[in-house]
Write a sequence for this structure.
């Protein structure tokens, strides 16, 4: 019932009951870096970039999945958080094969933009150079596992906005990867509606329009939030 | 007992290579080899990628001639889509290639080769470079650097950046020439003409004092190959393949570049990552041919622009049938710069370059596509095989420098025969051998990286592996 009052970075803010720290911060003009969060789909706390400190606990909390409470004191920027965020982003780069210079999403990539804003000038970990392939079997969409960060935004958009349930996660640990249906070639999928919402949701160049060349994959992700808002609130606000 | 002289690495070329000169018992040179000692692997690691990414990936082969790979790759993509690209896109690609020819040739002439014949073959190596040129003739050096900048600016005006522009794509290009870009290019023209004229006059003077070099630096009969326009004129982006022999006779003509395999075979040389293409009907080594500016001028009847045509007439008087001295690659390069500037001037007056019809769209209509373009150093082929989804199954790149490989070996041997005597390794001898390679302006970045400090290490090795003589140069 009612609003909660909490402190974020020394600023007293009020937030609706049940909202997350991320929502409360965003509503009050405080920016927390995110990668797996996407307006319009539920949060899963997968990327760990929105980690924040909460007074009274030594644990770190993901801002996108932690709900506010009365009197909560949150710190979104500290040396410790900066260190962990930079480490997280470096590990994402080390885990797969991200080659920005020749990527379709170069200049329009959330991973790249975050790396820049977090001051990543090099990666301190050994690159894994895994051998991932591509799925180009769909008539006009492509999937490159090399560029996937497993944020699962495409899976959530596919299941909960389009409702098709084509995209899924298979495998465990570093072998986890995005599949279509029960690991069919995407072009053979019986459930895919070719709506391309997965493409809109992807933060990197992992999902792309076939034929796109370097830096051509520019997407308007707000369309997903627009669809959800229209469906749930009957408000068609551009 | 035979001996071997190794020059490693060769300096002032684009890339990393070494030269071996073999000396027989009598102290005479029995042969020579030019080795490319690093491996890039583009043909292999591009497998599994979509063909549409290739114009983004392959320009990374080289920072000097990225446009050549960009254009050949886009053309191979056109062939896979089986489309005719919009006329404006073809004209724009040509304009970028002209910019590339100017910048690359200016680099070769002013930065890499001119220090030898302007500062003197026997001048100290520490000063025999572009910095030495700046010291001795600052105006010329500055003009040469700016001429290269002119070419680079054309690439930037069209593609957004000077190096590795992701601008040409399968089906066309991504943007047109803007009015601002057009004005910018036009403003450069008077200076570009003036610098090229100065360089041409200078080189003609060099020719009068360098008869020996003209005679000795790669002067031997070979075939010549390049793209040629339908009317037999100079071509740099479209057209068909033509082979001529050293008497100037056409031995093969109107060959579609997609059928290059019917005329070009590829030999593998031991101790080198550079392949050695040869003219298939004659076999290896009789099928030795040269590509690049010298070949393009030898195979064509005219340039198609007045100032360069006048120079071409003079050039043709330097040979009987064909001009066979590789030292005259330098002259051919300057004539091509002049022609390129004249064609660039024409392009500036062409309203079609501002067209918004720039890109054809299509799916996979052919599982095989070949793109050919004249890189500054010679004909470049990109040959892609894809599956039904457009994923690359096989990639074959035939780069210009490789096609000159057999001729470079012969050039090194020819020069060495005149300057290597016994065990003595002299600085002028080393430099002359290296210059024989520089005539071809080899771009080994297309198969190698320039790595580390370009020092020079020469060893004269006896039959038992003992070092008879050794020279280091920083």
């Amino acid at each position: 019932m009612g609003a909660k009052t909490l402190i974020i970075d020394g600023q007293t803010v009020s937030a609706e009951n049940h909202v997350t720290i991320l929502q409360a911060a965003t509503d009050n003009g405080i920016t927390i870096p995110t990668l797996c969060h996407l307006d319009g789909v539920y949060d899963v706390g997968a990327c760990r970039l929105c980690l924040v400190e909460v007074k009274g606990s030594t644990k770190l909390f993901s801002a996108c999945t932690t709900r506010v409470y009365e009197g909560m004191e949150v710190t979104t920027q500290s040396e410790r958080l900066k260190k962990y965020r930079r480490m997280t982003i470096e590990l994402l780069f080390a885990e797969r094969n991200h080659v920005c210079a020749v990527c379709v999403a170069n200049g329009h990539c959330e991973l790249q933009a975050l790396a820049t804003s977090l001051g990543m000038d090099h990666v301190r970990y050994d690159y894994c150079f895994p051998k991932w392939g591509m799925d180009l079997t769909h008539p006009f969409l492509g999937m490159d596992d090399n560029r996937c960060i497993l944020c699962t935004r495409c899976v959530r958009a596919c299941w909960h906005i389009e409702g098709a349930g084509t995209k899924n996660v298979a495998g465990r640990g570093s072998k986890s990867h995005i599949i279509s249906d029960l690991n069919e070639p995407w072009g053979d999928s019986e459930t895919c509606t070719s709506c391309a919402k997965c493409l809109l949701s992807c933060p990197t160049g992992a999902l792309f329009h076939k034929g796109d060349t370097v830096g051509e994959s520019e997407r308007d992700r707000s369309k997903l939030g627009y669809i959800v808002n229209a469906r749930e609130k009957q408000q068609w606000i551009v | 007992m035979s001996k071997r002289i190794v020059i490693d690495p060769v300096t002032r070329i684009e890339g990393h290579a070494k030269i071996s000169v073999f000396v027989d018992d009598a102290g005479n040179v029995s042969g020579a080899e030019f080795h490319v000692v690093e491996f890039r692997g583009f043909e292999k690691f591009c497998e599994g990628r979509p063909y549409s990414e290739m114009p983004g990936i392959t320009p990374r082969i080289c920072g000097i001639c990225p446009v050549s790979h960009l254009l050949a790759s886009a053309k191979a993509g056109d062939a896979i889509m089986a489309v005719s690209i919009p006329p404006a896109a073809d004209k724009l690609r040509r304009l970028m290639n002209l910019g590339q020819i100017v910048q690359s040739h200016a680099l070769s002439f002013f930065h890499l080769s001119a220090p030898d014949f302007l500062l003197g073959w026997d001048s100290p190596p520490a000063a025999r470079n572009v910095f030495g040129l700046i010291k001795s003739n600052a105006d010329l050096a500055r003009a040469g650097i700016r001429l290269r900048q002119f070419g680079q600016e054309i690439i930037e005006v069209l593609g957004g950046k000077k190096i590795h522009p992701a601008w040409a794509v399968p089906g066309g290009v991504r943007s047109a020439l803007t009015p601002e870009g057009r004005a910018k290019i036009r403003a450069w023209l008077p200076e570009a003409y003036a610098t090229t004229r100065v360089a041409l006059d200078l080189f003609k003077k060099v020719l009068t004092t360098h008869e020996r070099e003209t005679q000795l630096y790669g002067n031997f009969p070979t075939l010549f190959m390049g793209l040629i326009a339908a009317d037999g004129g100079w071509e740099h982006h479209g057209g068909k393949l033509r082979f001529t022999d050293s008497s100037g006779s056409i031995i093969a003509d109107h060959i579609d570049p997609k059928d290059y395999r019917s005329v070009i075979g590829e030999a593998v040389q031991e101790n080198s990552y550079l392949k050695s293409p040869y003219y298939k009907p004659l076999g290896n080594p009789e099928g030795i041919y040269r590509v690049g500016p010298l070949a393009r001028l030898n195979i064509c009847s005219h340039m198609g622009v007045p100032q360069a045509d006048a120079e071409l007439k003079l050039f043709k008087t330097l040979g009987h049938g064909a001009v066979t001295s590789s030292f005259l690659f330098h002259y051919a390069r300057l004539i091509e710069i002049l022609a390129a500037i004249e064609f660039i001037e024409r392009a500036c007056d062409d309203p079609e370059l501002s067209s918004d019809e720039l890109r054809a769209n299509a799916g996979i209509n052919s599982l095989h596509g070949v793109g050919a373009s004249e890189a500054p150093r010679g004909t470049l082929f990109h040959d892609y095989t894809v599956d039904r989804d457009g994923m690359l199954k096989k990639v074959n790149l035939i780069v210009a420098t490789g096609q000159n490989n057999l001729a470079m070996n012969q050039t090194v041997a020819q020069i060495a025969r005149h300057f290597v005597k016994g065990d003595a390794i002299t600085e002028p001898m080393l430099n002359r051998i290296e210059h024989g390679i520089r005539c071809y302006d080899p771009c080994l970045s297309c198969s190698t990286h320039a790595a580390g400090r370009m020092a020079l290490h020469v060893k004269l090795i006896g039959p038992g592996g003992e070092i008879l003589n050794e020279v280091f140069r920083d």
In short: The longest helix of chain A spans residues 79-95.
